Predict the structure.
Amino acid sequence: KTIAVVGCPFSGGQPRVGVDKGPIHIVEAGLLTQLKELGWNVQFDGHHQFEEISAANDPPIGKLKNPRFVSKVTKAVAQVVGDHAKKGKLPLTIGGDHSLAMGTISGTLDTYPDACVIWIDAHADINTSDTTDTGNIHGMPVSFLLGLGSKVPEFSWVKSSLRPDRIVYIGLRDVDAGEKRILKENNIKAFSMHEVDKYGIGKVVEMALDHVTPNRDRPIHLSFDVDALDPTVAPSTGTPVRGGLTFREGHYICEAIYETGLLVALDLMEVNPSLEDEASVKQTVAVGCSLVRSALGETLL
Ligand SMILES: N[C@](CCCC[B-](O)(O)O)(CCN1CCC(O)CC1)C(=O)O
Ligand SMILES: [Mn+2]
Ligand SMILES: [Mn+2]
Ligand SMILES: [Mn+2]
């Protein structure tokens, strides 16, 4: 099988510079070769060039920042990811900020309408235009995918067919008040760090899979925000939150999902190589590459 690597140098969903440099650092760290060494065919068409829409032509819509830029880019990503999936490849999208997941998961749902989503993150990324406090669209992709909140015309293209019972979260620890309401109202399953502590990561992953694919027969889209990991593990990311997943917990999730044989698409998001000192950046990039390898079959024995 072929891994189609989609390099998305994009930062329009959030305000911090540098997250658009994530893909180049990950690729330069040798990920493509590492995947070939795992036995995959690897297709990489180069990093996408998303020409910026000037701020003058992209004024906020309500609180939403860079709405037209984010919409244009994520729509393009949906097309790219969907095309790869339709050709039987496994799209690996390297971000870039997490607003990209509006595109990647729309692309997956186009090809696999019954796909489920496993969202690894410190945050729920489920704010609507009514509940967001920052207007940063990387905090909103899930609400668009679920078709929640008042419609924003610019995002009417999003495949808003994801069902609330087909997404499950692991790693939550920084959820806004509005998001907590949305999670409850929609009965969305979420394993916060409290549950990880209580049950252990093995049981949490089993319960998460039982929730979204009880018969282990549904395609899985894994969307991994590196800020799900503890900042001591992945320091160079835009919205770090203490009390996160250990190195091993993060890798266990990826290993266990690979073992299901159900993985059809993977996102590695929010590596920002410009926020910390060189050693911390290298560490974060290396952890990103390692997580991807684990999700794509690398084992310890
Ligand atoms: N929920 C936040 C963070 C989103 C993070 C997106 B990511 O892709 O990285 O998961 C806002 C978080 N909020 C900001 C102000 C603080 O005082 C409290 C937390 C938002 O901006 O919506
Ligand atoms: Mn996120
Ligand atoms: Mn996050
Ligand atoms: Mn983040």
Summary: The two ends are 22 Å apart (CA to CA). Residues 98, 225, 227, 237-239, 270 surround manganese (II) ion (ligand 4) (CB under 6 Å).
